[in-house]
Amino acid sequence: MEKARHFPKETALVQISDIVVRLRGFGYAGDSGVPEPQEKTLKILGLTAEDLNSFWPIWESKFYELRFFTEEMREAMLEEDPSHQ
Hints:
Structural class: mainly alpha
Number of strands: 0
Helix content: 55-70%
Shape: elongated
Distance between the termini: 38 Å
Strand content: under 5%
Largest sheet: none
């Protein structure tokens, strides 16, 4: 966040997005843990940790949809070209 002088809100949103998708099991950053959001990030976005927790029910349904979508895409790719296994 310290180097994000030109686009602080966008950078903060990317950090939160990374945390959320990693908590849900998407993606891998090369480490086994998921970081806590930085206080500066929350401040820039006008959020608290409690706010993030209140978003989970909304996000959960969207991740459920995303999981089905990615599975459908994987199956379509395999039908088109079985070498993508």
